[in-house]
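Researcher: Sequence recovery benchmark, item below. Answer with residues only.
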């Protein structure tokens, strides 16, 4: 009787061991979330040296939050960051930047600005002195290559209106 009981217990344990081994062997590596990718890319751009240029032109998509002082925006900071991550992922996957700006920005379309390091700018050409713009806007813009996209994250001191997804045009 004891031998039969031992055999039954062992028979029950064998499939459990097999199942746990087979499922652990078939697990795929965890895919990075859009939010993780966004945060990693923000840090990567911030660590770069600024590009040499007296003047640049950028287009941006602003994702604001309700505490940023932009009228009509009701999303929380967390919702704004998540939306930024989703839009950034679309852009990384080839979505049309201008179309996303048109449908999603909390600023005015087309959101194209020139920034200069010399002089006070030229408003007739929509060019502003870098020091006259939100600090993070220029900090990211000058670290991008032409055609590249980066993100200035919300920061109450350097990017108080929310997250800026920025594409360097010139």
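Model:
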């Amino acid at each position: 009787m004891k031998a039969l009981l031992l055999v039954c217990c062992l028979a029950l344990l064998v499939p459990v061991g097999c199942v746990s081994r087979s499922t652990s062997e078939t697990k795929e590596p965890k895919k990075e979330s859009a939010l993780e990718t966004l945060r990693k890319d923000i840090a990567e751009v911030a660590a770069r040296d600024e590009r040499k240029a007296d003047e640049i032109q950028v287009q941006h998509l602003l994702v604001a939050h309700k505490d940023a002082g932009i009228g009509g925006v009701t999303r929380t900071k967390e919702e704004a960051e998540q939306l930024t991550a989703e839009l950034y992922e679309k852009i990384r996957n080839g979505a049309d930047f201008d179309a996303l700006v048109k449908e999603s920005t909390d600023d005015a379309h087309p959101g194209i600005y020139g920034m200069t390091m010399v002089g006070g700018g030229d408003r007739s050409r929509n060019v502003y002195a870098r020091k006259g713009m939100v600090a993070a806007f220029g900090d990211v813009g000058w670290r991008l290559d032409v055609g590249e996209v980066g993100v200035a994250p919300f920061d109450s001191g350097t990017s108080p209106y929310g997250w800026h997804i920025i594409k360097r045009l010139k």
